[in-house]
């Protein structure tokens, strides 16, 4: 159904490392295929009843099937942050050799810190020429910080979601990481935050889950000023306490 709309963005489907999943995506009209598999011993043994030795032959089988059908491929390692890193490096190298256009590192339980993300991304990039995608979870409130660290250390793709929606404590917030990359680092330009704010409001309304008033970037009170010292400076020069005009984000200044 979604493949019939004239989106500017590509639609990428998530699949298990199984030919039947890839076939279902192709039948649905999706040509950009992401295949994912757990790579940690814990998940392989306890969830999949498999061993590490199963992964690469299965990759060869599934990649061959997808590429024979002219699919564009992305490969993801679930629970990468609890995987033996030299083994993961080899799996990513094989994925690149087999034809993947990018690889995804998933911090599935949100256990990493910005420093450990930096070390890991730098190490994994040594043998790769294709982009690394960082997929973070927010179990310890570090999803955005970890995504930024991944970006600063060579990841070229960040998995994120509107309002950080996702399993358990959620994922990297689209509005937060986009705001950082556009307004602080100036690595991207042209992201329309007025439209994004409307999108976030729509999603929150559909889910019947109000956006916290002080949610970074899209909260209704992020341009509210109450302290006398702040208000005094703001009235003299708005840039003293506002990095950019509220209108840029579809917001409104409020003096309490």
From TrEMBL:
GO terms for molecular function: 2-isopropylmalate synthase activity. InterPro entries: AIPM/Hcit_synth_CS, Aldolase_TIM, LeuA/HCS_post-cat, PYR_CT. Signal peptide: none annotated. The keyword Cell membrane does not apply. Its EC number is 2.3.3.13. PROSITE patterns: AIPM_HOMOCIT_SYNTH_2 (PS00816), PYR_CT (PS50991). It is an enzyme of class 2 (transferase). The keyword Transport does not apply. Residues 1-197 form the Pyruvate carboxyltransferase domain. This is 2-isopropylmalate synthase. It comes from termite gut metagenome.
């Amino acid at each position: 159904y979604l493949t019939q709309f004239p989106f500017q963005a590509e639609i990428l489907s998530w699949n298990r490392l199984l030919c039947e999943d890839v076939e279902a995506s192709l039948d649905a009209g999706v040509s950009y295929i992401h295949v994912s598999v757990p790579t940690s011993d814990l998940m392989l043994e306890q969830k999949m009843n498999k061993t590490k030795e199963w992964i690469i032959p299965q990759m060869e089988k599934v990649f061959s099937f997808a590429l024979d059908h002219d699919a564009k491929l992305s490969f993801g390692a679930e629970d990468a942050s609890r995987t033996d890193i030299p083994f993961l490096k080899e799996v990513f190298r094989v994925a690149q050799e087999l034809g993947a256009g990018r690889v995804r590192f998933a911090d599935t339980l949100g256990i990493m810190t910005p420093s450990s993300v930096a070390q890991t991304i730098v190490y994994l990039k040594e043998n790769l020429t294709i982009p690394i995608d960082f997929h973070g979870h927010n179990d310890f409130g570090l999803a955005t910080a970890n995504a930024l660290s991944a970006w600063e250390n060579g990841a070229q793709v960040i998995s994120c979601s509107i309002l950080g929606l996702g399993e358990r404590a959620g994922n990297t917030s689209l509005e937060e990481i986009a705001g950082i990359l556009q307004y602080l680092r100036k690595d991207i330009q042209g992201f329309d935050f007025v439209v994004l704010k409307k999108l976030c409001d729509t999603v929150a309304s559909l889910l019947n889950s109000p956006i916290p008033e002080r949610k970074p970037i899209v909260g209704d009170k992020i341009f509210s000023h109450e302290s006398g010292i702040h208000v005094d400076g703001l009235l003299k020069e708005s840039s003293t306490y506002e990095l950019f005009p509220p209108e840029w984000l579809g917001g409104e200044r409020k003096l309490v």
